Amino acid sequence: MAEDDIYGNKARYERFIANLEQLKELPKAKSKKGATRKYYCKNPSNLTYFKKLAKIFESRDTSYVRRLRVFCTLLFIVNTTKKNLTECDRDDINEIVALAHEVNKSSQSKADFIKNLKFIWKDLFPEKDEKGRTDDTLTPFVVRHLSKRIDKSKQKLKDDRLTWEEFEKLVNYFSNDPQMQFYLNLSVESLGRPQEICYTRISDLEINENHARIFISSHGKEGTKFLQCIDSYPYLLKFYDQHKFKQDKDSFLFIANGRKDKQLTPYNINKKLRKACKKIGLNKRITAYSLKRNGVTFSRLRGDSDVEIQHRAGWTSTRQLSTYDLSNNLDSYRKELAKRGLIDDPKYKQFLPKTKTCICGRSVGFAEKVCPFCKRLLDRKKAIEREQLKEELLNALIPSMKEALAEKIKENPRLIEIINKLK
């Protein structure tokens, strides 16, 4: 049986199945407590298809979030047509899709609806071969003409791309929250999915002398793998040192409200990111998934190969790069000019977090300004300037101190005996 996920979709799915008969009724008016469901089944005979799909899901051990998404598509379909689904022809399908396009605003949502619709028809009403057997290789004729390809002209530019300076501001904002600092840096470096990272436990953490690995032992979309922790290693040590339950191997690594049995969720992270963006004046919709996209973008602009990025993210191929990469042709142009030495524009020198080494020998995070151990400035130039300023101040104070001491000795000659004893 499929396992529950971080969003509690198992309970939502079980409630949906338990209340199938209620789908025959018209939706109730919106209450003060919140919105109710929008759709209902206009032809009660179509409810049997929910039960058939539920059996198919069980046989395939489909994830609960996938089941709910397909059910949402099917609910919209049975709300749109009064016909039994077996009687729908291409005109009916076109009408359903046209109405769905009015509801779904983004291109990706429109593509997902068509994908789920074809999946439903292929499983519920499969094509037959010449011997009357189910042919799983064929898409049913009534939905075969539909394409989930997104029209490029309707795509909108994502507004969650970060510059390196903006990412550094975010990390600095959470200076009093080591957990969020570590999450931000780990997500950008390892290219892990939010759900994968949030499901890790203390037992999944392998700390070495100057690096660490975090194993994805469950709920990994690409299967089991590990997340690299090299440049984010100082933030791991800072966070792990303050972890309340680090002795309990079954505790979640990222916890919420100080409880070992309650993990940090993407919802919690997004809420904190919205607040941080508002405080630092960053007018962008940054989410937990934005960090992964920006991590891929930073990697490509840094010059990492597609295969390196693929292996770090745990993908089976490099095809996902086009989805996650936020760079554009201008970035590629500027990067090429910089490689040839024709320009020197720091704006386009994007790198992943690099650890700093203090004069005391400790490694600290890339965004730190002062060493948390010895309290020295990490900027060597500024540290030297500060020492020179101290020396100048002392030199200016010493003559005046000598004059003041001579005056005191005149007033009280016995001070000379006291000074000699101190020597």
User: Into which percent range does the helicity of residues fall?
Assistant: 40-55%
Give the C-alpha Rg: 31 Å
Element string (H = helix, E = strand): HHHHHHHHHEEEHEEHHHHHEEHH
CATH superfamily of the largest domain: Intergrase catalytic core
State the total count of DSSP E strands: 7
Number of helices: 17
Percentage of residues in strands: 5-15%
Explain this structure.
This protein has 423 residues and is mainly alpha-helical. 48% of the residues lie in helices and 6% in strands. The chain has helices at residues 9-18, 48-60, 64-80, 90-103, 107-124, 141-144, 164-173, 178-190, 194-198, 233-241, 266-279, 288-302, 306-313, 321-324, 329-339, 380-411, 415-422, and strands at residues 205-207, 212-216, 225-229, 255-256, 259-263, 356-357, 363-364. The chain has a three-stranded antiparallel sheet. A two-stranded antiparallel sheet has the order 4-5. The relative contact order is 0.07.
